[in-house]
Amino acid sequence: ETGVTQTPRHLVMGMTNKKSLKCEQHLGHNAMYWYKQSAKKPLELMFVYSLEERVENNSVPSRFSPECPNSSHLFLHLHTLQPEDSALYLCASSQDPTGHAPAYGYTFGSGTRLTVV
Amino acid sequence: DAKTTQPNSMESNEEEPVHLPCNHSTISGTDYIHWYRQLPSQGPEYVIHGLTSNVNNRMASLAIAEDRKSSTLILHRATLRDAAVYYCILLGSGNTGKLIFGQGTTLQVKP
Fold first, then answer.
1. B43–A90: do the CB atoms touch at under 8 Å?
2. 3-state secondary structure string across chain A
3. What is the pLDDT of residue A102?
4. Which residues on chain B are in Cβ contact (under 8 Å) with A103?
5. Does any CB of chain A come closer than 8 Å to the CB of residue B100?
6. Does A18 score more than 70 pLDDT?
């Protein structure tokens, strides 16, 4: 149990489907993140939420839509994805809501393995 | 952003110490040195971090050079479960707390 739970663990979806990935943390952290890890590539930071407000969007296509209703939950809504979007999607949280205290570590979930067919 | 350089891969024998190097010659005074590892089919796991002084925890030790331009993650007795990709990452106060991953070092542990 890492403290950050992601569901589902695996997801297969067609290009016309709409699905959502869920992330939940019970660590009392104030910042949450979405990362994408494609095969044989480094993790790519997609979105950053600090105190439930999106503070960063790293040029992610609009077919990925994040939502952070409260500090414990983070969603990634998916629609009209492409096969190249198949990847491991990782959620993380940290205690630092401001990004100005780099002494805090991140806690990651186990990820959702997404396959777009 | 300050970058880090790590060897692509390393090998170790089980129950022997492992020293994983990281160069960060452009580190700024406020950058923390973080280490994470990623086991197969899992998300990254926090290992250790430090600023200037050497650090120890139950997982590993972090040795930081006096000029802070390099650091070494030390696993005192490698086990097969330590086989993973190890990432050395600089985290500064001015980068909105972004943890940016590079390629890391793939550690193989031989029985």
1. yes
2. CCCEEEECCEEEECCCCEEEEEEEECCCCCEEEEEEECCCCCCEEEEEEECCEEEEECCCCCCEEEEEEECCEEEEEEECCCHHHCEEEEEEEECCCCCCCCCCCEEECCCEEEEEC
3. 57
4. 32, 49, 51
5. yes
6. yes
